[in-house]
Input
Amino acid sequence: MFIACIAAIIIVDQLVKFYVQATMLPGMSFPVIKNIFSITYIQNAGAAFGILEHQRFFFIVATLFILFGSVYFYPYLKKQPSSIRLGCALLLGGAVGNLIDRIRLGIVVDFFDFHIWPIFNIADIAIVSGVIIIMYYILTKGLPE
Output
């Protein structure tokens, strides 16, 4: 289930990004809900909100460090509650989705545009959701053993 969740996030994220790139030019936008939500194709050279722009090497190394750490701690993670495993799977799947973009393109493809928030992608949703699940568990039940 853990590996399947990671794989599903990566596959869906990459397929949607491929579709956006194949059908739109950077900067192109079309409204889904007028003045509220659009699909807008941007190329993000940074992290969330464009921070640390053009630090591709840093992001690749940091993500690889997280991935290697996850492999090392996998036996420990298998013994954790399902919500912790789900949070980690979402976090890892999203991280790998954006890592693929950084290695392949040198940027991250973003496209969900709510007009009041920076543009983001499926991998970003997975990362944020995973962190929220992990934080909620820790705040309500304490650190897992």
